[in-house]
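Long-time lurker. I teach an intro course on protein structure, and each term I like to show students one example going from raw sequence to a predicted 3D structure in token notation. This year I'd like something fresh instead of my usual example. Would anyone be willing to generate the tokens for the chain below so I can use it in lecture? Attribution to the forum is fine with me.
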Amino acid sequence: MKDQKKNKKTRVGVVVSDKMDKSVVVQTERTVRHRLYGKFIRRRTKFMAHDPENTCAMGDLILIEECRPLSRNKRWRVREIIERAS
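-- Reply from a regular --
Happy to contribute to a lecture. Here you go:
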């Protein structure tokens, strides 16, 4: 079991808060179709992610991956910064 690589969930989102130490809040967006009217609606979800080097800043587009629970709310880890905020 040790040799097999686990497939972890990943999400791409924007950092909306970096005020904590070694933690960021990431907002992801997905579109769902309304059941009755068929219009596409944007649904947003916020995740708390572990950022050990404090490298993320507000507005950065980042990739996060699922990990073991690190605190009461943190279950995600920052894997890479895709695009820096201008």
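Some talking points for your students: DSSP finds no helices and five strands in the chain. The first strand starts at residue 10 and ends at 17.
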